[in-house]
Design brief:
Number of domains: 2
Radius of gyration: 21 Å
Distance between the termini: 69 Å
Number of strands: 0
Shape: globular
Largest sheet: none
Length: 271
């Protein structure tokens, strides 16, 4: 144990919004396996810049491939659906953990937070479906919804930091702000619910196979959620903390925004 701890001379302090102790505990267990022991000194050096750089490299490759192949809007929409699925699950975990960190309990709130997210999904879907047929430029509407995904994590980070500070200074007032943990999941759900039907409509311009298109997009959405669920609790929050994780999610969605903005429209298939 002492030899494992000695490898981290610049160990960070464990805090509510950055539970690095969880990572150190995992590292301690990993140190028992010789195959991964040499990686230990490098794990503590991972920062938000590495994740942003990796996302930027992906963006450059995607933009280059898009330009060389003259790919339509379908490819960035597919990437966007996966990124939205990842972002949505990350938002949920962040909100749940933040509530636990700030108030010290969570169990009775889980159902309410998840239910508010589902209500948001339903409201967002109902909103876009209600005027779907009147939309003439699906790309511009989708870009606007993507812009909300760029802004939302920054608002979430500011709100959580503010609630945490207020709760420390005035616990009574902080308890009154628990309503924010119902509103924020609802907004996140509404964005996702708004995007998904619109993504299906854009894809169906080139393909009339409704079942295949819906199944593909739903599968990509679930894949993104799976990746986000694995990454957020085991890697992102322990290493980056809640605030930097929100910033990273904003940057990733900004890159997706750029990718969509630089794409050409789908061709309308003639019957």
């Amino acid at each position: 144990m002492e030899s494992a701890i000695a490898k981290f001379k610049n160990a960070q302090i464990n805090t509510d919004f950055k539970p690095i102790g969880y990572l150190y505990h995992a590292i301690l267990w990993i140190s028992f396996f010789d195959a991964t022991r040499n990686l230990l000194p490098y794990i503590d050096k991972i920062n938000i810049g590495i994740f942003i750089l990796a996302s930027f490299v992906f963006l450059m490759i995607a933009l280059l491939a898009q330009k060389l192949t003259r790919a339509s809007l379908k490819f960035p929409i597919l990437v966007s659906v996966g990124a939205t699925g990842m972002s949505q699950i990350c938002f949920q975990v962040i909100i749940l953990l933040a509530f636990q960190f700030i108030y010290g309990y969570m169990y009775h709130q889980i159902g309410l937070i998840l239910a508010s997210f589902m209500i948001g999904l339903a409201l967002g879907s109902f909103l876009i479906i209600s005027f779907m047929e009147r939309i003439e430029d699906e790309k511009s509407v989708y870009i606007k919804s993507q812009a909300w995904l760029c802004v939302y994590p920054l608002i979430l980070a500011l709100m959580l930091a503010a609630i945490s500070k207020i709760n420390q200074l005035k616990p009574g007032t902080g308890n009154m702000l628990q309503i924010a943990f119902v509103i924020m999941p609802m907004i996140a759900g509404a964005i996702g619910g708004f995007q998904f039907p619109l993504a299906n409509k854009i894809w169906l311009k080139d393909s009339k196979d409704v079942a295949k298109t819906t199944g593909l997009l739903y599968g990509v959405d679930l894949l993104g959620s799976c990746i986000g669920g694995l990454a957020i609790g085991a890697i992102l929050i322990p290493i980056l903390g809640i605030i930097q994780t929100c910033i990273l999610l904003s940057v990733i969605n900004i890159f997706i925004f750029i990718l969509i903005s630089n794409s050409r429209p789908c061709f309308i298939q003639k019957m």
